[in-house]
Amino acid sequence: MDENPYRIQGPAVISVSFGRTSAYMLKQIIDAHGGKLPDDVHVVFCNTGAELEETLRFGYECGVRWGVNIRWLEWRDRRKRTPVEQRFEEVGFNSAARHGEPFEALIRSKKSVPNMNSRWCTQHLKVQVCADFMTSLGYTHWLNVIGLRADELRRVVKKDRQNEEAKDPWANVMPMVQARDTKADVRRFWFGNMKPIDAVQIQRDFGPTAAATLPQGFDLGLDEWEGNCTFCFALGYNVLLHRIRRRPEITLWPSKMERLVGGTFTTEYSYADLEKAALTSPLLDLGDNFNSDAECGVGGSDSSIRCGRRAA
Length: 312
Ligand code: SF4
Hints:
Layout: E1 12-16, H1 20-32, E2 41-46, H2 53-66, E3 70-75, E4 88-91, H3 101-110, H4 120-136, E5 142-145, H5 153-165, E6 170-173, H6 175-178, H7 183-191, H8 196-206, H9 237-246, H10 252-261, H11 271-280
Parallel strand pairs: 1-2, 1-5, 2-3, 5-6
Antiparallel strand pairs: 3-4
Helix pairs in contact: 9-11
Bound molecules: iron/sulfur cluster.
Protein name: Phosphoadenosine phosphosulphate reductase domain-containing protein
InterPro entries: Rossmann-like_a/b/a_fold (IPR014729)
Organism: Novosphingobium resinovorum
């Protein structure tokens, strides 16, 4: 990279989750390259099949509005003997899985569900898919561009440690950290002077076109505690309860997976327990959890979560 951290030296893969942070990073990178990415800098979205429709629409809009080719990929196979180009499949907005299919196939293959101690969903469904994609293109070494911000120190340290270990064919780069961009920068980019909660409420009331007055002319349309896998066990109890109250149907798929393998995603509760709690308890104030990010792998502030309980 040169002095501008957003100018990426290929070969590189930019991994986007279609949350506001990674979309912000993508736009900075596109702008730093004068509107067109080098041919050996690839943009990838790995679909788990458990995303909200708003997330998929937002990602599609990022690609179209910013004139960038975003490759939509889904996990298919984890066997080493399977050729890399068959371990994932390229899909598009219309053909992308919407009922957890890639995630379910992985759970069936592992005969267990992931948890906080063993969060292999991110590893297989996202990290490895990116790696297989780059390998399928013939690259042996590349940069892995990640949308971590300067205010996410704990996760940044983890990625730096991975770089030091140098076990992977890629090196992680975090241009937002080098640029010292924080959540405040991301919010300003998408919402200007509006409060995020107000900007999202307007879109909930009047539909996506209400975002036309926001700085970028479009938006994700989800609260900051929504987004990525609808049921994500890494978010913590309070955020999950809030999500379930808003969209009760999101417990159906994880409950089915827990019954399938006879285990639970978290130690203290099953998704059937969560559904019951949402039905029988009053609306809770999310407090600081309202500020929680919901991009894959970013948990809420509920640190009491423990995972891996086997069902009785
Ligand atoms: S959003 Fe949560 S459940 Fe989905 S892949 Fe990431 S860590 Fe796993």
